[in-house]
DNA sequence: TCCTACGATAGACAGAGTCCAAGTCAAGAA
DNA sequence: TTCTTGACTTGGACTCTGTCTATCGTAGGA
């Protein structure tokens, strides 16, 4: 995680307690927190941190490419710090749990030109849905 | 579309003017309207229809499997009446336009057992992103 | 140590969707 | 045809997620 903080400082980020705490909350594998969850965990360490700051910081991390924004349902977006290894998501329809998964094959290659309608297609996101062991 | 109305009646749906209008608005290919757009178009034919009724009716159509709910971004869900032929979606990052597409291959088959973490995986949704000819 | 521009804050605001109590009406029964 | 009833509709309040703005605070350079 200090890696991330170092990279951010290298990019000219002013380092504040709030930004540090948000970055620390997002540390780890298989982390897919909503903005509200990030705020709750950040506030446990730094009680006066505001929602607006959490949203601002998450937005900056996303635009710097350090965090991925995932919309697994129509509800709140989730934030995934595993931005440096391509992957897809497996979502439990019961409890909403999200796991990173690595399918083989390239979904982009499966879309024939005739099905692109003149679009410049740059990305394919796959969301697998099912029930996790606890919900099955 | 009268097909749909017949199927719904066959399932014990009470046929009201509101439900008929919502079903009619969703007729056609490559239709991906938000709830608000459905409401606006329905209200053009039946001015007093309420938002709650549109949401209720869309929810029922989805749970009957006659309409698919698509969350292409973190904003409003879209409703796709093309529920009886499997397909994926191609979304323009510029203007938000959505097209139905039919890639070959089965994304479900690309997810090895070792990457399923004990989940019962039943569905794979692919969202292709890029720029449409008008936005490129 | 002092300055100042960048960052944080609280709270108002907006969009999407849900919920509820009260009124309405489709469709089967008489 | 008329009656009855429970399913359907309505409007408005409410929740949740996210954005914006004016003001205050402070990290880091001079």
Question: How does this model look, in words?
Answer:
Chains A, B: This is Fur family transcriptional regulator, ferric uptake regulator. 2 copies of one chain form a homodimer. The relative contact order of chain A is 0.14. In chain A, helix 3 packs across helix 4. Chain A is α+β, with helices and mostly antiparallel strands. In chain A, a hairpin with a 5-residue loop joins strand 4 and strand 5 (98-101). The mean pLDDT of chain A is 92. Chain A has 4 helices and 6 strands; from the N terminus they run H-H-E-H-H-E-E-E-E-E. The first copy, chain A, folds into 2 domains: 2-80, Winged helix-like DNA-binding domain superfamily/Winged helix DNA-binding domain (Arc Repressor Mutant, subunit A); 88-130, Dna Ligase, domain 1 (2-Layer Sandwich). In chain A, the strands form 2 sheets. A 3-stranded antiparallel beta sheet of chain A has the order 1-3-2. The radius of gyration of chain A is 17 Å and the shape is globular. At the A-B interface, strand 6 of A face strand 6 of B. The structure holds a DNA duplex (30 and 30 nucleotides).
């Amino acid at each position: 995680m200090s890696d991330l903080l170092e990279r951010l400082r290298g990019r000219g980020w002013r380092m504040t307690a709030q930004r540090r705490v948000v970055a620390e909350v997002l540390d780890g594998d298989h982390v897919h927190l909503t903005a509200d969850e990030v705020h709750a965990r950040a506030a446990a360490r730094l009680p006066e941190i505001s929602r607006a700051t959490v949203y601002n910081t998450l937005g900056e991390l996303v635009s710097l490419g350090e965090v991925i924004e995932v919309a697994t349902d129509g509800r709140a977006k989730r934030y995934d710090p595993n931005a440096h290894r391509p992957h897809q998501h497996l979502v439990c329809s019961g409890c909403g749990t999200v796991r990173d998964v690595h399918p083989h094959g390239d979904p982009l290659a499966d879309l024939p030109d005739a099905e692109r309608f003149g679009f410049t297609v740059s990305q394919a996101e796959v969301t697998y849905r099912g029930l996790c062991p606890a919900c099955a």
